[in-house]
Each structure stands twice: as structure tokens, then as C-alpha cells.
Specification:
This protein is an alpha+beta fold. The chain is about 30% helix and about 30% strand. The strands form 3 sheets. Strands 1-2-3-4-7-10-11-12-14 form a 9-stranded mixed sheet. Strands 5-6-13 form a 3-stranded antiparallel sheet, with no helix packed on it. The protein has a two-stranded antiparallel ribbon with strand order 8-9. α3 crosses α5, α4 packs antiparallel against α5 and α5 runs antiparallel to α6.
């Protein structure tokens, strides 16, 4: 069963195989709307907005907000500071991690409903489990400059997150300078935790090679990036293969595919 739910400033897509799919999706959507009310930086009554205004102390926050705060601290350390929600304009902003964390929570609700396999896609932050058709989930990574072209397909066991400025513009901030940064056209991180993969993908776009090397050193995580000139680089173990790209629109040409490895 497939479903698309507008929530958390994006559209979350579900693909659920087996079990009580409808009930599982309904429960997952209810959870996402609840989390949106708690973590939105746009809703003045949310717990995160109250934290930003100093009206709510971290120790007084709901348990899941405390959990996200701890995850943000861990992601800041693992990314060498290139992901830092406390350095964002306007104060603490966990957006670069919480969407992936919420999608992972939604997936667990669906798993508990008895589904055999499922995928939750929150605007490019994707959590999966199971083996549809006896195979791993296969996720296409688009060309940053041409939405109709795929640069590669990645086989995913748990989580994959992609970040870049090609859809939302220069929204990723380098916490060290406070300015928008897009050192790669896109960055994709694969690993066991979607929350951390989400944060690390954001960090790699902001931090470039330094952040990419930080991901390469993390057990269980790997990354692939596409530079502004179309060069593809990947850390060891990145589970990707070249994909057959759809025919380009009239008057356009596919970019050359060049691939380089990034050592640990």
C-alpha cells in the first residue's frame, strides 16, 4: 500500500508491504503530525519554539525533545562541528536531524503493525526495513542539475539521507561562518540511523571534504557526493552502482559521469 502525507513542511511517502498496512500508515501519520506540533520552528506554541525563546528549559522539555537534543549533540561531535543546531540563525534549530528521526519513528510504528517490508520517505530522508521481492530496497539518487536523470542507485538496508541546495536553494548554513554553504551539489549518507544520516548529509554539504572524511571514519556509515562540476566521489563501502538514466528532455544532454574514491 502506498500513501503520501503532507506534514513537517514536506510530503512523506509510504510504501508498505503486508500486514495491517492501512492501520500502520494511519498511526504513523498521526505520530508525524504530533511530532510536527512539538518540533516545528514555525509554530510558536511548539516545544522547540519555546526552547528558542527561553521559555522552556531543556530539562523541562518532553522526553522526545530531550532525546533529539542528545542526538543533536552526538551529531555535532561526529560531524566535527559541521552540523550544529545551536549555531543556526534564530537559535537552536534541529531541522537538519529531526525530519530523519521522525521518519525513523514512523517506520517503527509501521513495523509494529506487522508489515513485512516498508519504506518511509520524508523528502529524501528514507528509512526502510524488510526485503520486498526478496531484494534490498533500491533508492535512486538524482542528478542535482537535472531532476529526470539518476546518477546512481543505492541498495539500502536501513537508512539513507540526501541533502543539497538544488531544490530549496541555499538553506544549509556553515555553523563556523554563519553563512550559507554548498561545498557539494549533493551529499548522500547511508547508515543504520536515519537521524544521524540526515544530520551527516547536511554536514557534508556544509563542510565539504573535512565532513566527508568524518563520515568515512564512522563504523557503519558511508557517503557519496556530487560536486558542482558533476564529479561523483564516495567513501569506502558506499553501496551504489551506476544507473540507467532516463532519456533527457529535448535540447539537454546528460552530464559526464566521473567517479572518484575517498579514502579513510
Amino acid at each position: 500500500m502506498r500513501h503520501h502525507e503532507p506534514v513537517m513542511g514536506t510530503v512523506v511517502s509510504f510504501d508498505v508491504r503486508g500486514g495491517a498496512a492501512r492501520a500502520g500508515i494511519e498511526a504513523a501519520c498521526a505520530l508525524l503530525h504530533e511530532l510536527d506540533c512539538r518540533f516545528s520552528t514555525w509554530k510558536p506554541e511548539s516545544a522547540v519554539s519555546r526552547l528558542r525563546r527561553g521559555e522552556l528549559a531543556p530539562a523541562e522539555a518532553p522526553a522526545d525533545v530531550v532525546e533529539v537534543l542528545e542526538l543533536c549533540r552526538r551529531a555535532r561531535a561526529l560531524s566535527r562541528g559541521f552540523f550544529d543546531p545551536w549555531a543556526m540563525p534564530g537559535g537552536f534549530d534541529p531541522t537538519g536531524l529531526v525530519k530523519g528521526w521522525a521518519a525513523g519513528r514512523a517506520l517503527e510504528v509501521i513495523r509494529a503493525s506487522g508489515a513485512e517490508a516498508a519504506m518511509v520517505n520524508a523528502g529524501g530522508d528514507i528509512a526502510v526495513f524488510g526485503s520486498p521481492g526478496g531484494q534490498r530496497w533500491r533508492i535512486g539518487i538524482r542528478d542535482p542539475g537535472e531532476a529526470r536523470l539518476l546518477r546512481c542507485v543505492v541498495e539500502v538496508e536501513s537508512a539513507i539521507a540526501t541533502s543539497g541546495a538544488y531544490e530549496r536553494g541555499a538553506h544549509i548554513i556553515d555553523p563556523r561562518s554563519g553563512e550559507p554553504a554548498s561545498r557539494f551539489a549533493s551529499a548522500t549518507v547511508v547508515g543504520p540511523s536515519l537521524a544521524l544520516a540526515d544530520a551527516l548529509a547536511t554536514a557534508v554539504v556544509a563542510g565539504g571534504g573535512d565532513a566527508l572524511r568524518a563520515v568515512a571514519e564512522l563504523p557503519g556509515y558511508s557517503a557519496g557526493v556530487i560536486s558542482a562540476d558533476g564529479v561523483v566521489r564516495a567513501t569506502a563501502g558506499f553501496p551504489a552502482a551506476d544507473a540507467a538514466a532516463p532519456a533527457p528532455a529535448p535540447g539537454t544532454r546528460p552530464r559526464r559521469r566521473r567517479r572518484r574514491a575517498v579514502g579513510r
